[in-house]
Amino acid sequence: MSHLAFLLVCILRGMTTPGATPPDPALASDFGSLDFQAQSEGAVYHWMNGMIVPRPIAFVTSVSEEGVVNGAPFSYFNAVTASPPVLSIAVGRREGVPKDTSRNIRRSGQFVVNVCSVDLAGSISLAAGDFPADQSEIEVAGLTLLPSTRISVPRVANSPIHLECELERVVELGEGPVDLILGRIVFVHFRKDLLDDEGRIDPARLDPLARMAGLSFGRVGDFFEVPRGLS
Ligand SMILES: Cc1cc2nc3c(=O)[nH]c(=O)nc-3n(C[C@H](O)[C@H](O)[C@H](O)COP(=O)(O)O)c2cc1C
To answer: Ligand 1: which of 45, 57, 69, 75 to mutate, judged by most atoms within 8 Å of the beta carbon?
Structure first.
């Protein structure tokens, strides 16, 4: 795409173009500010949930010592690096007590990230309830399991993408503390109908579920391409 065409696309889409306006200190009055270190834990949680959006959702399956399959959603989740293929999930604690997901992953060293599409919003919210460790959220949410290939933790057939993970390490953060789980992806499964003609995941077919703040979710749409650089 030529520079001119790129500028035209930017203007039509209402995007700011580099160098379009000089720095203007007067614009600072448009912004509210917060000293994050002076905020309560609850306030920080709400601000972060509202500001860092949209977040993808990992519906994580793990297995307890007694063999109960646990399922729970986590939106403090993302890719960390592709080489090695590592993802992260931040699992909080309940009054200092680790959640089942964290306990199971530490014990077995294995888990599956089941990627969430929009149609899973209801079931994963149901599964997020505070259930005893001997009760499987998978049954409560009416989900169907499939065996995994490399690990013994099953995956969820209702999800379009399954990332089989082995625990890389757990980093404890803060006083709570929160367990930042780093998992290495060792095997993946994807629904065949997600692929476009070039064999790539088509985001429109994936229809990824996005987590916003509070009880709010979103649908990611209106995909467009923007060239890099100006040449
Ligand atoms: C959409 C969604 C996203 C969530 N994200 C997180 C998260 O990133 N970290 C966390 O600790 N809890 C998160 N939760 C809450 C957990 O899912 C919830 O505490 C769950 O009961 C944990 O289950 P477990 O004890 O079986 O591991 C989320 C809940 C929902 C509905």
So the answer is: 75
Q: What is the pLDDT of residues 31-46, one digit of tens each?
A: 999 999 999 999 999 9
Which amino acids bring their CB within 6 angstroms of ligand 1?
57, 70, 72-76, 90-92, 99-101, 125, 128, 130, 211
In a domain, 224, yes or no: no
Asked if residue 6 is part of any domain, the answer here is: no
Residue 164's domain comprises: 56-219
Reported as a single tens digit per residue, the pLDDT across 77-127 is: 999 999 999 999 999 999 999 999 999 999 999 999 999 999 999 999 999
Query: What is the tally of structural domains in the chain?
Result: 1
12 occurs within a structural domain:
no
Buried b or exposed e, range 37-69, using 16+ CB within 10 angstroms: eeeeeeeeeeeebeeeebbbbbbbbbbbeeebb
Q: Are 144 and 136 in contact (CB under 8 A)?
A: no
Whichever domain contains 110, its CATH number is: 2.30.110.10
**Would you say residue 42 lies in a domain?**
no
